[in-house]
Structure formats: structure tokens, C-alpha cells
Amino acid sequence: MNEQPEDFNDEFDGEEPDEGRFLEMASAAFATIPEELRNHVKGIAFHIEDFADDDILDEMEIDDEYELLGLYQGPSLGEAGFNDIRQDLNRIFLYREPILDYCDETGETVEWVIRHVLIHEIGHHFGLSDEDMERIEQESDDQAGNEN
Known about the structure:
Layout: H1 19-31, H2 35-38, E1 45-49, H3 54-59, E2 70-73, E3 91-95, H4 96-106, H5 110-125, H6 130-146
Parallel strand pairs: 1-3
Antiparallel strand pairs: 2-3
Helix pairs in contact: 1-5, 5-6
């Protein structure tokens, strides 16, 4: 991930944020995501869990539960047709323990990591490639850095 602006600070004073605080941080981070993405996912729901469940990890062929920081669930815009009946809610799961572990390893703030996970997962909603999402993250980082 890229250098974070100084205004991204952990506000939990050394205490690990609980699920409720994580949800607050996700909502705050969502507000900083480029408007071009936010406008298209107004109905998305955030869910906070300690880890992805075993079925998800097995389906994604992930052996280490700390490898998955977040997950978009729901039909991507590329898959959903105009006349499709919505069978599932668009959701982003944020996995608290892997995010906290990542922050411990990298020194990045929780808010910053949550923001990048949200951008990445919203990108999946649009069917964007990893390269497209990295470009959007970089542009968003540049914009956030200029707002200081």
C-alpha cells in the first residue's frame, strides 16, 4: 500500500477496536472513497467479522485465515443483468483480526487499511481488474494527500 496522509490516525489509543468501532471506521472510510465509486454503491452493507468462515476460505482456496482482509459478496455489475431479480444483498465483509494483524506488521493505520480494502472490494462490484483498482487507489491516495 502507499504512504498514508498524516490525517489518517488510529483513534483507539492502543486498544484494539471492537466490531462496532470497526463499523464506524468503515463508514468514515467509505466517505473518503472517490465519489465516482461511492455513487454507484449507495445500498451496500458493511459486515465486520473476526475472520472469514471456513467455507469462504475453502472456496477461495486460502489456507491462512489471515490472508483475507475483506470480501465483496453479491453480483458484480458485470454479472447482473437489467432484468435480474436481486437474490442477494451487496455486502462487504471486513475481517477484523487479519486487518489488525496487517496493521501490526506494516505500521499502517486501521482506518487507512480499511479504506484500501473497501476500494478494492467495491472494485470487485464493478468487475474491475486488480490493476484498475490499484490505479484508483493511487489516484485516491494522491487526492487524499493533496487535501492536507
